[in-house]
Design a protein that fits this description.
This protein has 192 residues and is an alpha+beta fold. It contains four helices and five strands. Strand 2 and strand 3 form a beta hairpin. Helix 3 packs across helix 4.
Length: 192
Amino acid sequence: MTDSNSVEEPIKQPASVLTLSIVTFVAFVAFAGFIFYLYFFNENKWQVDTTAYKQQVDSLKNLTQELQVRLASQEEYESKRAQHVYEYRFDPFDSENFRLYGLYRDVEKKYSTLDVALMFNISNAKSIKYSDVIGERWFIVPIKGVHYYSGDETITEIAMKYYEDPADSVLITRFNLEPEADMRLFIPFGKN
């Protein structure tokens, strides 16, 4: 039985709990000190790296602007070149100006120069030459131009760039027997 006049003693914490609290506090202070040490030790390096990265970003921005100007210039040149090819007509009597030629392959040797001239709208069959090589006949045919075929456009889209009639796209596939991506296609003369 307890005496009603007696005062209860406060509960004493064991020494191990108190030691654990002190160790935890010291560990926290040591950890915080280590973090501050790392921050101040690396602060100068971070500033140098940040400056270098800003210079790289500025350099890349300048390079991007230069490349955009070059790309715009290249696109303008390509547009003018395509327009020139579109407007170019075969003149059989013009022997003074440069004429572009392409090789047309006849595997079965069934075409004559007249056939090829009619097939590709050349009004002077004498402007076409041929040679038989290893069982195939190769014709040297005047062409309208050359187009780099990247593979992400259709032959009809290409024909629309160079011909008045998009139906002339058959001429491109007939001249370039197996068009594949990343190759240069010969653009033969159209009907007009």
